[in-house]
# Entry
Amino acid sequence: HRRRDLDKGRLHAGRRAIYNTSATSVIQGNIGVEIIGAAGTVSNAGTIIGGYALGVVLVSGGSVTNAATGLIESPRSTVQLQGAGNVLVNDGIIRETGSFTSGFFAARLINIGTVVNAGTIAGIAGIGGTTGGALELGGGLSRLVMEPGAVFVGQVTAAAAGNVLELAAGG
# Structure
């Protein structure tokens, strides 16, 4: 069992990728993984925990892939992709643990992007009067693909017009 404890798993433009490939490995910090300065890539098969803030934040956008064995959790918006051309592929669990009372989502695309979900994306909206939820598509023209087995706990919202919901064919 390998564990990386970080205040912030922050990477700058020179290093833009995190590969957490073992199901037993853990990346943990106030912010689990933060990539700034350029688009980033996070591939997770283990556990990423944001202790106080975000689980994964890509300030300049990029892609996050969470495998079936993957868990990403934090008390605030757990996965937040802020740039353009974002991609979130989830086969595991993305979970907001809910230490804060309102306005946070388990996953957020601030700008245009695609979310493909075959796993679980769980927010805490509605518990104790909280707002927020499972997923927020911030920019218009984003796409949500729901694969067979997809689970959303909490609301899925589109903050702008032009977003698309695609129901993938069952296998």
Summary: The two ends are 34 Å apart (CA to CA). Confidence is low (pLDDT under 50) at residues 1-8. Residues 7 and 111 are 27 Å apart (CA to CA). The longest strand covers residues 26-35.
